[in-house]
Here is the input.
Amino acid sequence: MTRQRLGFGGLFLKYFLVLFLAVVIPLATNGISEAWLGYRDQRTRLEQLLGVEARSAGAKIQGFLDGITDQLGWLVQLPWTEEPDERRRIDALRLLRQVPAIASLTLLDGTSRERLYVSRIGLNRSESRTDRSADEAVAGVRSARLWYGKVSYYRDSEPYMTLAISGNRPSVGVVVAEVNLKLIWDVIAAIKIGQTGQAFVLDGPGRLVAHPDISLVLRGADESTLAPLREIREAVRRAGADVATGWDADGIAVAAAAAPVVGPDWTIVVEQPLSEAFRPIYAALWRTLGLLLAGGVFACLLAFILARRMTKPIHLLEEGTQRIGAGQFNYRIEIKTGDELQRLADSFNAMAAELAVSQERQERIAKLKRFLAPQVAELVDRAGDDDVLEGRRTEVVAVFCDLRGFTAFSAKVAPEEVMSLLSEYYDALGRIITKYEATLTSFSGDGLMVLVNAPVPVADPALKAVDLAVEMQLSVQDLVAGWQRQGYRIGFGVGLAKGSATVGRIGYESRFDYTAIGSVVNLAARLCASATDREILTDATVANEVNGKRALNPMGLRLIKGYDEKLLVYRVSLPEKPSAT
Here is the structure.
């Protein structure tokens, strides 16, 4: 028996699919729902966080600018006179020291004439009296009191903005300041959203005012730098109250919110990488994926264990069925699982026992059929009584038949032809013997011995024996006609007699026959030997019992071999068709 191994198919695959789906579907459903709900919650928190951070950053930038304008306001408190004002010069220089973001200051009197100019990078001037009324800053501050100019880049790098403020009366004049916006970097750099989130400031046209990466600011109006920042600002505007998503200057996906800086018409944008913003969601998805992998491994192991637990008994069952199929009905399948498989094994064992009984019965019937009609053999087997086969004295009708001229025929033709003729012969007689439920006790060459009324008694055995002999004669004569057309000179004779005989089994343990011993057997054999072709000879006992029922012709007294006295012999007439019993 080839040892079978558990493969990755069959029960293992089925168990794995069922267990995998049983584990994966709940985990996947739970993980997806958790991720979706977590995403919604996290997005709401992100909107709130970025919105608060944007407004807070805007307030800080606004505070930075308000701090500068408050300081500038002290320079436009007193009206100008025609004389030089040394005190104002000292205040302006002190303001430059106090506010590093201011690069230069220009003080104008009520007639918009320059009275004082102080600078960190240029030469100071005093009382130049240059008319500045046409300057954009002066015109703007006359109408709004506080004016913010556009952002410009000094030497195409550092951002600057002109800021002007006028006094509450025209006589106090105007102060114009050049503010270096690079110093807003300190404010922007201090703004952190999460671990890597940041903020940056764009002016109205979309130029970069401040960014934590000062190198981006120092690039000035470089379009390749400004384009992604403008796209983020536009995405925020389109999103409205929702969080916008986009790509920063480094190509990283970010979530962003914005708040305005009212005075200079700036926009401060705060952003946080999506990988950080939704890190809890990604972590939940990775946890779910890990659980799915663990569940898959668990399902695989459990499927392997269950399939192995199932396949071992199944292999035992397969081996058992093969052995039982090979006829080893004494083989028993030992499975002690306490479940349906054990009950199945018990059923197989019970089946094997029944098959053993059935085989024994079939063998018994086969032995009985060697000398009994199949119907009689079945009857004896169902009754379970072999007493009818034991030796006893009873009345029987012995029927002998053989072929005439067979010895000469078999000596002349090939063995194959002899066997073919005998096959036809026995087939024809066998069907008739079975039909009349007679008992075939022996056959030798072309001769047969048949008993009627033994071992199972029958009604009117003499009449049944005569009808049996008639049908045998008619059937064989059909064969004889064909044989004669082939040139075979063969005939068929039958003899029968009735009387007491000893009947029973004879032989040894593994081989026995059922036979009859007595003078009636010898008489039937002698009558068969005396019968010519197409002749059925019977003794007086049979003739007396069938007289008036079947046509008989007395042959008179004949000297029969083995008998001292002549016996009365009768010949049975052959009808065109055998009469039915």
The mean pLDDT is 82. The chain is about 45% helix and 25% strand. The radius of gyration is 64 Å. The longest strand covers residues 491-508.
